[in-house]
Amino acid sequence: MKLLQSKKLQLPHVYFITDRKEIKDIPIGVPFIYGHESEEKYLVRILEYEVLYQAALKSGYPFNFKKILKDAGYIDLQDFRFQHPPYLEFMTEELLEEEEFDAESTKHLSESCETLSSYIKDSSAYVDVTKLKELNVFPVWLDTIENAINTNIHNFAVFNNNMYNKKLEGMYGGLELVSPNRNLIIIDISGSIPKAVSSTCLALAKNLADSFYADLLITGSKSTLYKYEEIHSLDVEGIYQENGMDNDQVWFKKLVTSEERIYKTAIVFGDNHTPCDKWRNSYNTDSTYISREDGQKMCKWKIDKLISFHTKSTEWTAGYADWFVPKEVEKIANWVKYLD
Questions:
Q1: Which domains are seen in the chain, by residue range?
Q2: Do 312 and 197 form a contact (C-beta atoms < 8 A)?
Q3: Amino acid 180: pLDDT
Q4: CA separation for the pair 24, 152 (Å, rounded)
Q5: Strands, DSSP E only, in 122-271?
Q6: pLDDT tens digits, 214-234
Q7: Model pLDDT for residues 262-280, shown as the tens digit of each residue
Q8: How many Å apart are CA 321 and CA 295, to the nearest integer?
Q9: Is the pLDDT confidence value at 171 over 70?
Q10: Residue 264 CA: distances (Å) to CA of 77, 164, 295
């Protein structure tokens, strides 16, 4: 356990834990981030960006955040090229059928940027971490001890009206410890997602999943479900190589149709790209067009509430939630800032 520190800026007091056993030694309400020791420098950088961005907002003046980063000494910023989502999302079927359209040209080669260390330097976009903070799902953002205690109680205890009370000698109810409902987090790491977005979400993935009691689904050229029990051993650095940066339908379909799973809440990060897209993964011969309606009929995963983090708009939900039929939908706005 150590305090995350920066040579450039004064960071908020956040502890970094590399051993899960140390978590029990952290007092309730003390902010921390859990991860592998190799991830420390990435987390520090995310916090540095956050400090600079919030300071610029407080000034009340217009600002160019990319210039602020360069002036602060971040000379290794990289202007990654990512396909602007509308170019891919709003093509008509007639255009897709034209001979001159080359789907291969829209693929994003990752040979030059396969590691998290390069992704984290993407200067095309900034993730406003305060939008994640508002969800209160991971311990680095628990603001007070009171909030932390309330969260713990709400997650792990319920009032059972039929419980026998020994002191009162009657069925007057009482608190009963229960296993919390499991949740789901989906992160799209395909080429149309700015790397600054996917890398930030991935760097915080362990805390999001661990504190939110969630399984983690990564979708790229293939989709992989990492269950809650194995999140602590997740190699964040290798996720891009393992899952690729195209958009998947085949692996995703196998996951959501193979067995029934029930999730209380699903947090989905992505854009309009969806397993419904008929030209996805053309190299998978069994990949075919599946409409949203048909996908919902096939899907065996049940979601009570969907929290959508769409990179472009609150008019739509993130695409890889298309096959779910949630009872409630919340769309988070203005969590991605695109930099000039």
A1: 2-61 (no CATH), 85-134+181-338 (3.40.50), 145-177 (no CATH)
A2: no
A3: 67
A4: 14
A5: 125-127, 157-160, 174-177, 183-188, 214-219, 223-226, 261-270
A6: 899 999 888 999 998 888 888
A7: 999 999 999 988 888 654 4
A8: 10
A9: no
A10: 39, 28, 20
Burial class (CB in 10 A: 0-12, 13-18, 19+), 21: exposed
Map tokens 């989709």 to a residue.
223
Q: Give the C-alpha separation, 122 to 78, whole Å.
A: 5
Token pair for residue 24?
Answer: 């029990």
236 touches 249 (CB < 8 A): no
Task: Tell me the CA distances in angstroms from 101 to 93, 97, 104, one per residue in order.
Answer: 11, 7, 9
Q: Are 322 and 308 in contact (CB under 8 A)?
A: no
158 — alpha (psi -120 to 50), left (phi > 0) or beta? beta
Residue 218, amino acid: I
Phi, psi for residue 309 in degrees, rounded to 5: -110, 85
pLDDT above 90 for 308:
yes
Q: What is the pTM of this model?
A: 0.77
Cα of first residue to Cα of last residue in the chain, in angstroms, is 38
Beta strands across the sheet bearing 214-219:
223-226, 214-219, 183-188, 261-270, 301-310, 328-331
